[in-house]
Structures are given as structure tokens and as C-alpha cells.
Amino acid sequence: MKLSVTRLDDSSFPSLGWVVKVDLDHWGSVRAHCGLLVEAGSNYLVEGVWPGPFAELGFSVSERFFGSGFRILSKDELCFVSSCSTVDRIWCHQKDRIITLSNSLPCLLSVADINLLCSEDKYAKLVESIVNGNEYKSEFPVDHGRLHVHYFENVRVTKEGINIEVKPTEISPFENFDEYSAFLYDTAIAIGANAADSSREYPVKIFSTISRGYDSPVASVLAKAAGSKTAFTIKSARSLLPREDSGLEICKYLGLECKEFTNNRTRFRDELWYWAANGSLQDMNFSVFDYPNGPSAMFTGFNGDMVWSRGEASDGNYLKRKDSTGLGFCEHRLLKGVIHCPVPFWGIRQIESIKRISNNKMMAPWALGGEYDRPVPRRIAEAAGIPRECFGQRKSATTVDELILLPITRQLRNEYQKFLSMNYLPPLRIYTLSIVRFFVDLWRGIVRQRLIDFLRSKHFFKDRSKTFAWENFLFPWANQKLKTDFAVETDVSEELSRT
């Protein structure tokens, strides 16, 4: 099996992006395009971290792999590997006997030469279906062929076609807190060793995000164990009145350098990549960070509310979530060279045993009561030297709560208006009147959302949309616009033929 890799510079391709095209009628050679920071060898491409020596390429059989990649397993079989989380994904398109896979939708659209359907208003719902966990919707409409998205599963390709493969299981249920805590620390240390492995062409720097909540302090504790010296924090949480949420004080106890950032529209960058991720700006707070040069791995606390809160697990559906936060960063991270490593997903298949630990009476000293109560992360953080009163006292969020979904910059708003007009879609005029926007925000944020949530249980209302008509087309618009930026067939900076 011959792998031909074309590296593309940052001006035309995300630094951690990759696209692989396989022609089943010409089996024996594989063509790949990738960014400058993707690790590439004679039989693999990978942008990710996992426990284990890098040279062994164990990411395809790991239950703790974060990022994405591809391996030639034999002359008869290829394996495409998704992240062990739902904040990232891989895409697969097939038309006739040609299969194209990628970790970036706009990159895949370009290489496969396909288009999303501009008149289709269900894309945002399809993306958001990941909150249903294992029952997410996988097929997305395109103008020709079939396009599927894959979370927490691998895609095997043989001469006969595509097979979806469940991730291997390597982690057993946790018996008690000490066992689970040791597992988290061991994983962090092993991921840190993998990130710094001398076999890598591009060693990975580790950092974390931190706030005054429960989950990110634990992510920072474990990032430090993995070798991190830095944490990023946003000064204020989202609220009617600004509320301090900086993790600066916690970083002092951990001995980490804390880099503080302000979360406001003047700091937002690269917004198109967030619309392309999930048709929302909820994770655009990540755009305010000044990321390290070269590849990096970011430890976060995403999904801590499902994994570490007290209560019962979701009937074996370990991927079920309350929301899709974190997913909105999946395209922009590729541009910035960031591997997203959400700590609560480590060992998530054993969520039932983690819940049992949280509810165990032995955890009572770390249970404060109330709805916002997470004994497991509290115990880990306090054992690391963080005082009880410094974190987990009040639930906050720094995600972007745009109650009416419109492009932020004037140029993109005008382009989106043109896109809607050209495709005979619902016109967008509301942004021209800021006072109207204010009252629409007020209505949607305080009344409309709550009213619809209440009425959704009623038969007549349960299929009603939560969005305004023009908001449903932001996802296809952004991906189609980014697609035109990737002239990958002609912009070649380096070509490597590997056998």
C-alpha cells in the first residue's frame, strides 16, 4: 500500500487538518493532503495524543485517544480514527467507489468537490443531535454521494467498502475513588509523555483552561501532572452583570502561570470557523486565546456536568450530553494547531461506576449539597492544594450566549445577507436595527426559550423550532464559504511518496 502525502501551508489549509482519498477501483495507493503540523509516516497520519509511546502508533486501538488520524493496517485494510470524545469528529463521503475522509468538513468539501445544500434548513439540528449521545444523526445531505459524520468510533476501509468499528475497550469499571483518581493521574502522565515523545517530528505543548468552577481546575491539576506550566482563563463569567471567574488565584496554588483573557466581541477572531463547526458561536470564547506556536494539547473540563455530577447515568448511553459545548471549537482548533483533550471523557464508558463513586457515602466530606455538587472533582482539586472556597461555589459559564444568531462582523453579515438572497431563503434585515435586536434578544432569552422548552412536552409543539428561520443556514453558508479557500489540488508545498 502506497501513501502519498501532500503538505499544504497555513495560508491554504488548517495546520492540523487532513483529507484522505481512496479509490476502491485503484486499490494499492492512497492520496492524502494535510497541514504542516500533522505527523506523517509511511503508513499513518495523526494529529493527537494518547497514552503510550508515539512510535507504536497505538492511537487506533486506544480508548483514550484525542485528536484524529489514519493508519494503513495492512495491504488490505485502512483505519480512520476519531477522537474518544464528542467535541471532535471525522467526516466520510462516498460516491460510487471513491471514498474521502477528513477531520474538517470544509476541507472535505473541497477535496471531494461536493456541496452542502444551501436550501436545507436541518443542518443545525443534525449537528446538535450529538447531545443524544450514541443516537446522534450521522447522515448530512449533499449534492451528490453520501456524507456521514462519526463520533467516538473508527472507520475501516477495505476493497469491499466501509465498515464502522466500535472503539476498543481497555478500561474496566472503577471500584472506588482512589482507583479512579489514580487512573486520571496515570492517564495524564502517559499523555504528557506521548506529547513530548522524541519520535514526534513536532512535540506537543500541553496547557489547560481554568475557571472557578469544578471541572477546569481538575483539568489543570492533571495538565500539570502531564507537564503543563500554563493555564488560560477568562476573567469574567457570562451574566447580566460581569462576574469574576478568573482562575488566577487557583493557578497560584498549583504553581501554574495563568494567562488572563477578556471575553468580548472586540476580541473575537476567525468567527467563520465557529459557524462552520455547528452553526453557533457558543464556543467562540476560545477565539480570544493566544495559542502556543506549534502543536499543543488543551486539557479542558467539558462534559464534567454529565460525568461528575451526582445522580444516575443515562441508561448506558455514555455519550449523552446536556448540550454540545466544546464541539464549536472543532474546526478552529485545526487552524490553531490545538488538540482538544477533555478530561471528563477519560474512561467515560465507565460512567456508571464513576456515578457510584460520586454517590458513595465515603465521599460525603466533599459533597456540599445542592444542584451544583460534584464530590469527585472537589476531592481531586482539594487534594492538589486548592482551598475549598476558591472553586465550585457557583455555576458559571464563559461560553458566548448570542441569543440571536447573526454574523458579528459587518462584512460577514453582508455576505450572509447576500447568500440568503441568492438562495431565495428567509431574508435577514433584523441586524440593521439595534434596538429591535435588543428586544428580540430579550424575548428569546427570557421568554421565548423557556416557553418553548415548557411546551415541547405537548404534542403540538414538540417539533417546533427554537431558531429563527434565517439562523438555520449559517452552518452550510460558513462551510461553503471556507471550502473555496482550500485549493488543495494546486497549492503544493511538499509532496512525500511513502511505500
Write structural notes for this entry:
With 499 residues, the protein is α+β, with helices and mostly antiparallel strands. The chain folds into 3 domains: 167 residues, Glutamine Phosphoribosylpyrophosphate, subunit 1, domain 1; 214 residues, Rossmann fold (3-Layer(aba) Sandwich), CATH 3.40.50; 74 residues, no CATH class. It has 13 helices and 21 strands. The strands form 4 sheets. The protein has an 8-stranded mixed β-sheet. Strands 4-5-6-7-12-13 form a 6-stranded antiparallel β-sheet. A 5-stranded parallel β-sheet has the order 18-15-14-19-20. The protein is globular and about 60 Å long. It starts with a strand and ends with a strand.
Summarize the structure.
The protein has 499 residues and is of the alpha+beta class. The protein has 13 helices and 21 strands.
- Give the name of the CATH architecture of the largest domain: 3-Layer(aba) Sandwich
The poorly predicted ranges are 460-464, 490-499
How many strands, what sense, and barrel or not for the largest sheet?
8 strands, mixed
Helix coverage percent = 25-40%
Number of domains: 3
Number of helices: 13
Mean pLDDT: 88
Walk across the major sheet and give the strand order. Answer: 10-11-8-9-2-3-1-21
Determine the N-to-C terminus distance: 7 Å
Alpha-beta classification: alpha+beta
CATH class type of the largest domain:
Alpha Beta
Kindly state the number of beta strands: 21
The value of Rg in angstroms is 22 Å
CATH topology of the largest domain: Rossmann fold
Beta percentage is 15-25%
Question: Judging from the principal axes of the Cα atoms, what is the shape?
Answer: globular
